[in-house]
Specification:
592 residues, 4 domains, alpha+beta, five-stranded antiparallel sheet, five-stranded mixed sheet
Length: 592
């Protein structure tokens, strides 16, 4: 058997080699200079380790194993370890078990890794129900090392991540995915790198072991990111290639832009192509129609286009309000998690109040402070429950304010643009001050905004008074002329509606609704908007722009979601995009 002292020495050899490797990666010398400088140590370490690994118990009659390392070698390596022990320490190993020692170890790390590691140690001390860090699908700390899945993970002082000799650039998005239960602000590249790490470490397999069952979770992080990392596309069968049922595609709950129909929310579509024409047969003509429907559904959508302007009639005609979430930084800000932003759309003057939660009571208190100064005729917000509740409704009635929301994905566009400007100013302060404590300078950046010349009105928001109202109304807020160009659609046209698409949605999924609608009314606005109705003549809420509609070439061709029953030569089908009241029996020969 190997001498216990030799085992201990071998462990020190491995730890020292790892330390040398970590330090080499951050030195500013070239690879050749590094190799020459450390060759006397690394070469001898490799030789000693090779001897220790190579000399196993003899399988012959010999009962005593030969010594693995000569005395001179032992003496040499022990001395070398002592020399390098203080200089080379593993970049991710922490020897002390005390919390202050852990934090002291990372004091020389960059702000990004130090922030997440420090918060992880703090989060670990919380009640499990209050923890925001992910110790199941994220990084965990055990016995002085960081782990993810079944593998140790190395966090370099500059923030880069190393796993199994693969180096990943340390970005805020990747750290969000590696540490948080509910990650935010990550890019597509961050998501790809996180998935690669998950695959390498068996992250979603039980016990992190290969060939084990998938260990799922109800967390959005699992459902939205990790659940499909082992999925592979199904093969299209011969029958499917000829026509009829096609393989299913993954579609993460597509929505209409304005029309809130839950029947459109269908996960993992089993069928793409089929028809609803009673007399349709498998001919070249029907195949061409099927192809046309597919082309219509997958036609690229246009997101950025000219929209209607906000028309103002007086200085206090319209305010817009919105909540900015600052939840990740609540601990550094005395528990404040939100900022209520309100803007006078005419003067561009802004108010901002810190809130500890978005309850109706908390929002109403802050809003009333603004209304006491001067209440507007109208207030526009998004459709959040923090604004649409009985308490807020009573407040609006008290100050005689007309409160409303739009159906557009742009919502209150003016205040959302202000949110972006204020966030930009805040993050500059974060970087300058080296802290995420925003409550100390919120008033300062709002004051700076209100006292800066605004590009739209050509003056500072704080300088706008009632005497400037007429001047601005005649210039900036003058009435818009109605376009006399011919409209693209007319009443009675049958159209599809574009689907809203998020930043990270897959580009190959359907872009347009499967259900078909009819133009009910044409509004001569600038640009023109259209009112729609469904097949039961029910008007769809909200107006639609030209670029959000697509005229249908074959309005009688529909797609099948699934076959429910079969009986003789008939099949009961559920139509894609329609509720169960539209289920119908058709001749199975009519399925193309």
């Amino acid at each position: 058997m190997i001498n216990p002292n030799e085992k201990e020495i071998k462990k020190k050899i491995i730890a020292t080699r790892r330390s040398i490797k970590n330090k080499l990666s951050i030195l500013k010398h070239g690879e050749i200079a590094q190799e020459k400088k450390f060759l006397p140590i690394t070469k001898h370490l490799k030789q000693i380790e090779h001897k220790l690994d190579g000399k196993k118990e003899d399988t012959s009659n010999s009962t005593v194993m030969k010594k693995d390392v000569e005395a001179s070698d032992m003496k040499f390596i022990t001395n070398e370890i002592m020399k390098t022990e203080d200089l080379f320490t593993p970049s991710f190993t922490i020897s002390s078990s005390k919390e202050e020692d852990k934090l002291d170890f990372f004091k020389n790390y960059a702000l990004l890794p130090k922030s997440y590691i420090t918060k992880m140690f703090e989060d670990k001390e919380k009640d499990r129900r209050l923890q925001t860090f992910d110790y199941k699908y994220g990084v965990r700390y055990e016995n002085g090392n960081f782990y993810i899945g079944n593998s140790p993970i190395e966090i370099h002082p500059n923030g880069d991540i190393e796993l199994k000799n693969k180096l990943y650039t340390g970005t805020k998005g990747l750290y969000e995915l590696l540490f948080k239960k509910k990650p935010t602000s990550y890019t597509e590249d961050d998501e790809k790198n996180y998935k690669k790490i998950a695959l390498k470490t068996n992250l979603i397999l039980r016990y992190y072991q290969p060939k084990q069952q998938i260990h799922g979770s109800i967390l959005p992080k699992y459902k939205n990111i990790l659940s499909d990392i082992y999925n592979t596309p199904k093969d299209v069968t011969k029958k499917q290639k000829e026509g009829g049922l096609l393989m299913k595609l993954t579609d993460n709950k597509p929505d209409y832009i304005y029309w809130d129909n839950p029947n459109e929310l269908v996960e993992r579509l089993k069928l793409l192509l089929s028809s609803h024409q009673a007399e349709m047969v498998k001919t070249k003509s029907s195949t061409d129609k099927k192809r046309q429907v597919v082309n219509e559904i997958h036609k690229p959508t246009r997101i950025n286009f000219k929209r209607r302007r906000t028309i103002l009639k007086s200085m206090y005609d319209l305010y817009q309000a919105d909540l900015v979430e600052m939840i990740p930084y609540a601990k550094e800000n005395n528990g404040y998690k939100y900022i209520l932003i309100v803007i006078n759309c005419f003067s561009k003057f802004v108010w901002a109040y810190a809130l500890k939660d978005k309850s109706a009571n908390e929002v109403c208190k802050a809003m009333e402070k603004i209304l006491k100064i001067k209440s507007p005729k109208n207030l526009q917000t998004d459709q959040g429950k923090e604004f649409f509740n009985n308490a807020f409704k009573k407040l609006m009635k008290k100050y005689n304010v007309n409160h409303y929301s739009t159906f557009s994905e742009k919502k209150a566009a003016i205040v959302e643009r202000v949110n972006r400007t204020l966030k930009n100013l805040m993050w500059k302060e974060f970087n300058y001050r080296g802290t995420y404590r925003w409550v100390d300078f919120l008033k300062e950046i709002v004051y700076k905004y209100n006292n800066t010349k605004h590009r739209t009105i050509g003056m500072k928001p704080t300088d706008v008074t009632k005497k400037h109202e007429k001047q601005l109304l005649n210039t900036i807020y003058s009435h818009i002329k109605i376009s006399k160009l011919n409209n693209k659609f007319k009443i009675g046209d049958q159209v599809r509606i574009s689907k809203i698409r998020g930043i990270f949605d897959k580009g190959y999924t359907a872009n347009w609704s499967t259900e078909i609608f009819k133009i009910k009314k044409v509004n001569l606005t600038n640009p023109t908007t259209y009112i729609l109705e469904d097949d039961k003549n029910n008007e769809i809420q909200g107006g639609f722009y030209e670029y959000q509609l697509q005229k249908v070439k074959y309005p009688d061709v529909y797609l099948v979601e699934k076959i429910l029953k079969k009986k003789n030569n008939k099949v009961l089908v559920k139509w894609l995009g329609f509720n169960n009241t539209h289920n119908s029996w058709i001749d199975k020969n009519n399925i193309v």
